[in-house]
Amino acid sequence: MREAPHLTFDLDKPGLSKGHLVVPKGTDCGALSLPVFSLNKGEGPQLLITGGCHGDELEGPIVARRLIEWLPEAQTCGRIIVVPVLNPPAVQACSRNTPVDGLNLNRVFPGRADGSLTERIADAVSRLLLPMADTIFDLHSFGPGWDFPPASTTHPIADPNLMGKTLRMAEAFKFPMTLVWEHPGSPGMFDTLAQNQGKVFVCPELGGGTVGAEALAIYEAGVRNALIALGLVKGEAEYPTFLQAKSTQTLETRRSTDEMKAPARGIFEPRCSVLDEVRQGDLIGILHPMDSLSADGIDIRAPETSIVYAIRSGAYVDVGEGVALFAHPLIR
Amino acid sequence: MREAPHLTFDLDKPGLSKGHLVVPKGTDCGALSLPVFSLNKGEGPQLLITGGCHGDELEGPIVARRLIEWLPEAQTCGRIIVVPVLNPPAVQACSRNTPVDGLNLNRVFPGRADGSLTERIADAVSRLLLPMADTIFDLHSFGPGWDFPPASTTHPIADPNLMGKTLRMAEAFKFPMTLVWEHPGSPGMFDTLAQNQGKVFVCPELGGGTVGAEALAIYEAGVRNALIALGLVKGEAEYPTFLQAKSTQTLETRRSTDEMKAPARGIFEPRCSVLDEVRQGDLIGILHPMDSLSADGIDIRAPETSIVYAIRSGAYVDVGEGVALFAHPLIR
Question: What is the pTM of this model?
């Protein structure tokens, strides 16, 4: 008989518990044990915090580990479950996708009990952890190769009530940017599964290839701000300083004009910073051909007045690869 | 008969020239044409600037392209030869080493005319470009996965006269850090070949995985400072602002205590910033085991009073991988 996914401890037990979520073995590899922390202080919000969905985004696991250290002293009510690493094999490989089956964990929800490893992880999380939460923070990073500000992100949600609640939750992080991201419908996202069950789901994202002490402090402060807003811990929210400024803004993307693609191959030189407001025609970068110094660089200019929310790091890019992403102030 | 490496134009021609350095075909691939810029204003320093030795370090090629734009208006004497990309196949693959033969261009100098592609590139550069220069700036980056300050670097040189000249040249960049790097003797470095011929050779390095507009501005200002110091262009040197400070320091490494390695595998959390001065026992990072939340993180502490010149970005590391690098003020 097939082993079922299970927890090695009872999440409903009052107080602090630590144990594992066991993802059963399959034909592709043995069982996995994901470390799980739970702090149950009775009535109140039921929060699930997950990190390490993608193995090359390690701010989340680090911030989750920090939370585990200070929550026991700080949490006053409700229950917080923390899973620092959802996908240990991907983290060990520093890889976005799971090495065993090549799948992206955030594209296979709700998963399959008899599927490959990534699908079995999603299945275990969907069955055993998601039902215990009314609010989920899935800690991501924008990933290497791009500059991206500390941000909390969500997607357009059909139900206006859930959209409003989700947006207020996202803004409670008080990150420099809150982004409503008009994603081309990707099936199998953790977000969509949770939202279809009426839950509030927010993805903090903090980008760039270098995870430094300063970036981690901003990330942790944002999560703490959100916990304060939920009433799970007491304290005053703090606006982190980013690019020498303390400010937040809520933006949305419009699918038709939100991405600038490289018109040719070459070395991309960024000429603006994230959160810069640009007008139509402003220079945002230069694409340098590699084959000749007589060919001029190609100026990459803003298609319309907008805010640059992500800019490609200096890199060699191929025709059609994205080099800049644009957003606009949210129309409510 | 084997084709010899050659230039498509005469470097001794006065004024501005653009053309190619042709690296002959071999058994592994066809001929390569590396774009070369030369501006010959007669008597004065003979400078060679190269970038793109490693294909995942693209600050150098971008800064080299910028130089080519403003040098024609700025250079007053001497000759500057610029090769933005020494290793185009590595840049196209975003890879440190050359994909065709897997070799590191900075370990095969002086190269071999009948060798594999990387060796043929080194051979062409050694024969045709190096003899034209008395000073070389080889534009590198520390590379992804680490935080590293804008720096100019050199290695200990046996000849005290050349060491003094090289150190003065390195300090003329006025980067936040000048580093004399006690490298374990790696054969085949471009540096060593040039220094053995009595030439001044400096590597600017600017690290981290994200090449943003601000980092590029610091890099370009440093190169301009060095050109001013050489007397090739006129102007006032500028101290770039880095971590909210305008300061420079000259450091050296001591091989026995310059690196902290991970004592176990886990997720590394940096707890200090580059250029932080630390005392023996100060916390510089935490290594979080992934398998259990009951096992405490392992504190990584400074072995002695020193300056952190590079810190591993948040990442999964294996036992024995470096997580922090230390240096000390240079004793002259």
Answer: 0.91
8-state DSSP, B172: H
Q: Cβ separation of A213 and B288 shorter than 8 Å?
A: no
Record the tokens describing residue A172, joined without a space: 């409670």
Q: Convert the pLDDT of each residue in A131-158 to its tens digit.
A: 999 999 999 998 778 888 899 999 999 9
Q: Are A21 and A36 in contact (CB under 8 A)?
A: yes
The ipTM is 0.87
**Domains, in order of start, for chain A:** 6-252 (3.40.630.10), 259-329 (2.40.50.100)
Give A258-312 pLDDT, tens digit per residue.
899 999 999 999 999 899 999 999 999 999 988 888 888 999 999 999 999 999 9
Using pLDDT thresholds of 50, 70 and 90, give the confidence band for residue A109.
Answer: very high
Measure A161 CA to nearest chain B CA, in Å: 37
Give me the helix-helix angle, A213-230 and A160-172, nearest 10°.
130
Residues of B with CB below 8 A from A216's CB?
A: 269-270, 314
Distances (CA, A) of A58 to A51, B39, B68, B164: 8, 46, 39, 43
Chain A positions touching B288 (Cβ under 8 A) are 61-62, 65, 84
CA–centroid distance for A297 within its chain:
34
pLDDT digits (tens, 9 = 90+) for B161-216: 999 999 999 999 999 999 998 876 688 999 999 999 999 999 999 876 667 788 88
CA distance B146 to chain A (A): 6
Q: Which residues of B touch A315 (CB under 8 A)?
A: 58, 94, 211
Task: Answer whether A65 sits within 8 Å of B288, measured CB to CB.
Answer: yes
